[in-house]
Amino acid sequence: LISGRYKLVSWNSRYAQWAPDCPTLTTPCPRWGMSDCTEGCVYDILADPSEASDISKEVPGVTFQLLARMTELRIGMQDYPSTPETVLAWTVWRSKYNGFLGPWLD
Fold it and tell me: Is the dihedral of CA 25, 83, 33, 72 positive or negative?
């Protein structure tokens, strides 16, 4: 969710990561800079376009507003829990395709 200069990352996955040059066909994303975003991470995308620093604790009012808006938007949405199949798919996508989506079943 993006509002002005702030971006909220909040999902059931434990980690969020972005870098401007990965993944590519030849460059996987490094494992540094991962953040636990289960409670919501906030990034100032103008000052920090690579989303390296979670500022959710520094701007609690913004964090609260973004989380409240995300809660509104999620009303009526179906959440699908992870299954062994989805875990396998993500593992194959990360290892075989450097993070890109592709076939994962034999």
Answer: positive
CA distance 35 to 52: 9
Closest CA to 29 of 21, 41, 38: 21
**pLDDT confidence bin for 89, thresholds 50/70/90:** confident
Cα gap 18→105, rounded to integer Å = 26
Is 92 buried (19+), middle (13-18) or exposed (0-12) by CB count in 10 A? middle
In which element (H, E) is residue 42 found? strand 41-44
Q: Of 1-10, 16-25, 87-96, which has the strongest mean pLDDT?
A: 1-10
Inter-CA distances, 32 with 3, 18, 53, 100, Å: 26, 10, 12, 19
